Amino acid sequence: MTGILRINGSESRITLRGDEVLLDLLRGRGHTEVKEGCREGACGSCLILLDGVLVNSCQVLAASALGREITTVKGLGTVHEPHPIQEAFVEAGAVQCGFCTPGMILATFALLKTYPRPTDEQIRHALDGNLCRCTGYVKIIEAVKLAAERMAVDG
User: Fold this and answer.
1) Crossing angle of helices 138-154/84-91, nearest 10°?
2) In angstroms, how far is the first alpha carbon of the chain from the final one?
3) What is the pLDDT along the chain (155 residues), one digit of tens a residue?
4) Is 39 left (phi over 0), alpha (psi -120 to 50) or beta?
């Protein structure tokens, strides 16, 4: 199967297998920021935005993403120009090994699009399904609150 794949604003024509999942396609194309965890959609490591909607890439057939916009954490910001959410995670100490961080950041991005000033309950709900084994969730929740505060100020 052949089609156009749009990742972080760049387009390329690709050929893929009909049974290939998006996680494998992305990682095979060098997008190692999309992590492979449980392969069951339960850990949040492989989260991406597909047409702006948060999805577990391990649960999406790659063919269904053809012609659609895929955003990984690298599509939000770079090392030299980080997104406010990325900055907040670093400043709050919400990153340890970094394995869960891309999914946490994308879940936070999706949350703040819907709820710019989320409650604690909304934050917990948005992060449900994102597993972290290093930091616990206190610093991650602090990072989400810090990002929300800064993004509200920046408009």
Assistant:
1) 140
2) 42
3) 899 999 999 999 999 999 999 999 999 999 999 999 999 999 999 999 999 999 999 999 999 999 999 999 999 998 899 999 999 999 999 998 989 999 999 999 999 999 999 999 999 999 999 999 887 799 999 999 999 999 997 65
4) left
Instruction: State the Cα–Cα distance between residues 30 and 11, nearest whole angstrom.
Output: 14
pTM: 0.95
CA of 138: how far to CAs of 37, 92, 98, 100, in Å?
22, 10, 16, 14
E strands within the chain?
2-7, 10-15, 47-50, 53-56, 69-71
**Sheet of strand 69-71, all strands in order from the earlier edge strand to the far edge:** 10-15, 2-7, 69-71, 47-50, 53-56
Alpha-carbon distance 81 to 120, whole Å? 28
Structure tokens at 127: 């992060």
Q: Which domains does the chain have, with CATH numbers?
A: 2-72 (3.10.20.30), 84-154 (1.10.150.120)
